[in-house]
């Protein structure tokens, strides 16, 4: 080969190298921009973990709130069941209370009998008080249609309007719940 041919061959090789290098130089830039687009589109692993943690934290908070609501609802139901059981038991004991009340009002010459009835009535009232049961409906109290059952009406100038003139049957409450309405006579 002549020098001229060698120079031409070297020039051709250099041109090929340059042309080969030029696209290689462009390729990393193109690859970098593609990677940037992929990063922009696809969140990083740390962001994915943060998102997953946030979802699990939200699920945990919801579960904790559901459990708290369940606990409160169960407690309310339990309290309601207890109150209903006490109410039903007291309803069954009210005829005994009424009979003891009638026995106290009747005349008797036997003092031991009267004292025994008084003691029994005192113990029954203590039991009712211990259960949270309160009696209501006394003579002179204002009439309340939500708690009293008016079976008679009387015109009496000595009493104010809508006042209980006489109590036929004592009423009982357990908290806000009326176990038995008081049966009364209302004045004016």
Task: Write a structural description.
The chain is of the alpha+beta class and 188 residues long. It is built from 3 helices and 6 strands. The strands form 2 sheets. Strands 1-4-5 form a 3-stranded antiparallel beta sheet. The longest helix has 61 residues, at 45-105. The N and C termini lie far apart (142 Å). The mean pLDDT is 87.
Gist of the model:
With 188 residues, this protein is of the alpha+beta class.
Helix/strand layout:
Layout: H1 3-41, H2 45-105, H3 111-131, E1 133-136, E2 148-154, E3 163-169, E4 171-174, E5 177-180, E6 182-187
Parallel strand pairs: 2-6
Antiparallel strand pairs: 1-4, 3-6, 4-5
> Which runs of at least 5 residues are low in confidence (pLDDT < 50)?
none
**Separation of the first and last Cα atoms:** 142 Å
Helical coverage, percent range: 55-70%
Cα-atom Rg, whole angstroms?
47 Å
Calculate the mean pLDDT score and round it.
87
Overall geometry: rod-shaped
The major β-sheet equals: 3 strands, antiparallel
What's the helix count? Answer: 3
Across the major sheet, the strand order is 1-4-5
User: How many β-strands, per DSSP?
Assistant: 6
The percent range for strand residues is 15-25%
- Please, what is the oligomeric state? single chain
Structural class comes to alpha+beta
Tags for this entry?
alpha+beta, three-stranded mixed β-sheet, rod-shaped
């Amino acid at each position: 080969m002549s020098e001229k041919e060698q120079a031409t061959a070297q020039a051709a090789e250099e041109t090929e190298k340059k042309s080969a290098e030029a696209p290689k130089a462009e390729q990393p830039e193109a690859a970098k921009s593609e990677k940037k687009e992929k990063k922009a589109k696809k969140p990083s692993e740390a962001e994915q973990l943060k998102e997953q943690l946030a979802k699990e934290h939200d699920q945990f908070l919801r579960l904790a709130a559901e459990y708290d609501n369940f606990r409160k609802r169960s407690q309310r139901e339990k309290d309601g069941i207890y109150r209903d059981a006490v109410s039903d038991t007291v309803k069954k004991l009210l005829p005994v209370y009424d009979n003891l009340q009638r026995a106290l009002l009747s005349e008797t010459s036997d003092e031991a009998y009267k004292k025994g009835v008084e003691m029994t009535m005192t113990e029954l009232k203590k039991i009712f008080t211990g259960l949270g049961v309160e009696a209501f409906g006394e003579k002179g109290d204002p009439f309340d249609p939500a708690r009293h059952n008016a079976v008679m009406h009387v015109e009496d100038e000595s009493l104010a309007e809508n006042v209980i003139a006489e109590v036929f049957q004592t009423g009982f409450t357990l908290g806000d719940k009326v176990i038995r309405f008081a049966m009364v006579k209302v004045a004016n």
